[in-house]
Amino acid sequence: MAVPARRTSKAKKNKRRTHYKVTAPTVKFDETTGDYSRSHRVSLKGYYKGRKIEKAASAE
């Protein structure tokens, strides 16, 4: 039975995986603010799904 002469390094093993790809983030146009924003995130103006999100009370 064949045995490798040397151990395969982590760098060599990780280069075998070619099915990992960089994907672009999903961006949607928000009609309420007129800006583009990422999906499932609060916009910079504080809107989520067309509604204004109130800031949570600070724990004081």
UniProtKB/TrEMBL annotation:
Tell me yes or no: is Ribosomal protein among this UniProt entry's keywords: yes
Which cellular component, as a GO term, is one annotated location?
Answer: large ribosomal subunit
* Keyword field: Ribonucleoprotein, Ribosomal protein
What are the GO MF terms of this UniProt record? Answer: structural constituent of ribosome
Q: Name one Pfam family in it.
A: Ribosomal_L32p
Q: What is this protein called?
A: Large ribosomal subunit protein bL32
HAMAP family named among the record's database cross-references: Ribosomal_bL32
Domain of life per record: Bacteria
In the record, biological process GO terms are: translation
Instruction: Report the gene name.
Output: rpmF
Per the record, the similarity remark reads: Belongs to the bacterial ribosomal protein bL32 family.
Annotated InterPro entries: Ribosomal_bL32, Ribosomal_bL32_bact, Ribosomal_zn-bd
